[in-house]
Design goal:
The complex is a heterodimer of chains A (586) and B (95). Chain A has a two-stranded antiparallel sheet with strand order 1-2. A two-stranded antiparallel ribbon of chain A has the order 3-4. Chain A has three domains: 44 residues; 74 residues; 384 residues, no CATH class. In chain A, helix 5 packs parallel to helix 23, helix 6 runs antiparallel to helix 7 and helix 8 crosses helix 9. The N and C termini of chain A lie far apart (57 Å). The longest helix of chain A has 38 residues. Chain A is globular, with a radius of gyration of 25 Å. Chain A is mostly helical. Chain B folds into two domains: 31 residues; 40 residues. Helices cover 56% and strands 14% of the residues of chain B. Chain B has three helices and three strands, in the order E-E-E-H-H-H. A three-stranded antiparallel β-sheet of chain B has the order 1-2-3. In chain B, a hairpin with a 2-residue loop joins strand 2 and strand 3. Chain B is elongated, with a radius of gyration of 28 Å. The chains are: A mainly alpha (586), B alpha+beta (95).
């Protein structure tokens, strides 16, 4: 096969044309992303899956909890205390709670929360930890006492309802209210308990060790791709330090409340350097945006567990999977035909960002359509600013108009971009809204795979095609961004694994084991390295050009307005008209 | 004709302003100062706006990481999934 011709335009995007070669498997970044991503996924599987003893123990405990849930559901017309305790017991069964998983987390964890002193993010002495725990203890004791008292009241109310054979409506209602009050008190006690569990730590040696491992890991591909080992390693450590600082930006308490995450800080720090003192050549050799981002995206693929689509039944599918593509296509059309956004790649990146799930969707879409780095920067900035406002305005509006919390939660889950901001806005309204919002968002998150695949295919077959040119399947294959295949492949393999283990066990071993306990942590680091690299290669002038006439902002605003209207209508239709029984069961 | 001496550009006619390198480093320092000012002065004021005070209390109580990008970054999403699934699979039989 012929060696592909690479057309590089303005050093921003690289397009492959002409053909494919066997050597692509080791000479192209896309394939390296797949190999490296899958190597990490295999390591994750090898760490978590062979632990058969705890898997068996978990399975037994889950069966016992499910038996209790079934018995309680059949015996009472409301969720009893035992029902809640059985469900809570399942929540405690997670691979991430095991000792070996905690060791992994300690090694790859990001810096911790801090308020005024940045050193607090990296080091905490035993004295400080003890002082923090002592300060939080009175609040914990009080919350624990209140939870115990609420439990005693709930038990008495449930007993009274049971004595009447659960046939007295007033007693049933009283018991339900007492149980809800106990659940609320229990949650406060659990939150207070977290604050007395502070432990001393020193992240510096772990971060140094982790940086060395990552540098060696990434240098393998870089050497084959033609980069010099020493230059790459030298630059990599600086990129890594900037990634650590970006995490510290996210973990600063005030910034964390605002939802300003590491991608924003990574871009800001990178841009600050590149636009002032400049990015030296040796540092540029380690600023490998596509390399880090595509490897991260293959790992993200594993987190797209297709079985989660049905978590909340048909209403979830309609709210997340019917509305989202409509909003995505409408926003793209609006940008092209009405607002006249000059760049199609900027248009689709913003459209995916606001319609699917914010920054993660923007990353996947931008990589799939080969958007400019500055375009991804624009989408990330807009997304974070809108989320910071919407996570307060939406729940305040829902409360003010007295909207049902489940309806409000579903609306929040379908419209706010960032998952963290969705959970925060849902919690603003209470447990039911939080659970609904978080679940709808999770279902929407799964769409990211289809969006990236669809955009890559559309770009290859339509956008990049010369007018009148007939594109053969072979040509489509040449042009198609191959890492998307790794991304989709990881999703399919992990979805099969998830399905084969059963929902409960998979939640503990795959979702809360391999993914949350290992690959997610690495994936976020890779994204942090990628965003630092983007910042180091972006200049203010180019960014300013995208904002000419405020077009990206106008697109985001009107796209979001359409999303809000359509999602609210669909939520109402699903929960009040088509599937009202689901609302009653939640 | 110009020559660089220390941090100042000089010409045969005498000094005429700081060097490019100095200005670049100064710009970096100003940028960092702006970030710190945003972090410690401006953003905390914003949290005193109506709604944000309640939001910070909720985030403190629940431990929700507001900047999380994907569902796997929010522990509460895992809790929600189990609770929703149990609520639908083991729904109490209403009379």
């Amino acid at each position: 096969m012929a060696e592909p011709e690479r057309i590089q335009s303005s050093t921003e995007i690289v397009r492959d044309v002409g053909g494919s070669a066997w050597s692509d498997f080791w000479k192209k970044e896309d394939y390296w992303a797949i190999w490296m991503g899958f190597a990490i996924l295999i390591v994750g599987i090898l760490i978590f899956l062979p632990q058969s003893q705890w898997r068996q123990e978990m399975g037994k405990k889950m069966d016992a909890s499910n038996a209790t849930l079934k018995k309680e559901a059949a015996g009472a017309p409301f969720k009893t205390i035992a029902w809640h305790q059985a469900s809570d017991a399942k929540r405690g069964l997670r691979g991430t709670n095991e000792a070996f998983a905690k060791q992994i987390q300690e090694f790859v964890s990001a810096p911790s929360r801090w308020l005024y002193n940045p050193v607090d993010a990296l080091y905490r002495s035993k004295e400080v930890a003890d002082a923090m725990n002592a300060a939080a203890k009175p609040a914990f004791d009080k919350a624990k006492g209140e939870a115990d008292a609420a439990l005693a009241k709930a038990k008495a109310a449930e007993k009274a309802a049971e004595a009447a054979g659960f046939k007295d409506t007033a007693l049933n209602k009283k018991a339900e209210e007492a149980i809800a009050a106990w659940q609320s008190a229990e949650q406060k006690a659990s939150s207070a308990k977290r604050k007395v569990g502070n432990k001393p730590f020193n992240r510096v040696p772990y971060l140094i060790g982790f940086a060395v491992i990552l540098a060696l890991f990434f240098s393998i591909g870089q050497m084959v791709l033609g980069n010099k080992f020493l230059t790459f390693i030298m630059g990599f450590f600086v990129v890594f330090i900037l990634a650590v600082l970006s995490y510290m930006g996210e973990q600063q308490e005030t910034m964390n409340y605002w939802g300003f995450g590491f991608p924003l800080w990574a871009i800001v720090l990178g841009m600050l350097i590149s636009n002032t003192v400049g990015t030296p050549k040796w540092l540029k050799s380690a600023a490998q945006t596509e390399y880090y981002i595509k490897t991260g995206l293959v790992l993200l693929g594993a987190e797209i567990l297709l079985n989660k689509i049905v978590t909340i039944g048909q209403p979830g599918i309609f709210i997340a999977w019917v509305v989202t593509p409509i909003v995505l296509i409408f926003t793209y059309w609006l940008g092209q035909k009405v607002i006249k956004i000059p760049s199609k790649t900027l248009n689709i990146t913003i459209s995916a960002d606001l319609s699917v799930c914010g920054v993660s969707a923007a990353i996947a879409t931008a990589a799939a359509c080969r958007a400019k780095k500055s375009e991804l920067t624009v989408a990330v900035g807009l997304s974070m600013c809108f989320a910071a406002v919407m996570m307060v305005v939406m729940p305040a509006f829902i409360k003010a108009v007295g909207m049902n919390p489940i309806l409000g939660g579903a609306w929040i889950g379908g419209t706010i971009d960032a998952t963290g901001a969705v959970a925060a806005a849902g919690a603003f309204l209470g447990d039911k809204a939080l659970y609904t919002a978080a679940t709808i968002k999770m279902i929407q998150n799964i769409l990211i795979g289809f969006t990236a695949f669809g955009v890559a295919l559309y770009w290859t077959t339509r956008v990049e095609r010369v007018a009148g040119e007939k594109v053969s399947w072979w040509e489509i294959w040449h042009r198609f961004p191959k890492f998307v295949l790794g991304f989709m492949g990881a999703s399919i393999i992990f979805s099969i694994l998830d399905d084969s283990m059963g929902k409960d066990l998979s939640a503990a071993v795959v979702d809360h084991g391999i993914l949350r306990g290992f690959t997610r942590l690495l994936r976020e680091w890779f994204f942090a390295l990628a965003f630092v690299s983007i910042g180091l290669e972006t200049n203010f002038r180019e960014l300013r050009e995208h904002f000419t006439g405020g077009k990206p902002f106008i697109l985001y605003f009107f796209g979001q307005c359409f999303d809000l209207s359509l999602t609210l209508f669909m939520c109402w239709l699903m929960f009040y008209v088509v599937f009202p029984d689901v609302m009653g069961r939640l | 004709m110009t020559q660089v001496v220390g941090t100042e550009h000089t010409s045969l006619d005498g000094p005429h302003g700081p060097s490019r390198a100095f200005r670049d480093w100064l710009a970096l320092a100003v940028g960092l100062a702006a970030i710190l000012a945003f972090m410690f002065l401006i953003a905390p004021i914003g949290l005193k706006l109506p709604g944000y005070t309640h939001l910070t209390a909720v985030l403190d109580e629940t431990g929700i990481p507001a900047p999380a990008l994907f569902y796997t970054g929010v522990p509460q999403v895992g809790d929600a999934e189990i609770r929703i699934r149990d609520s639908l699979t083991y729904a109490p039989a209403k009379p």
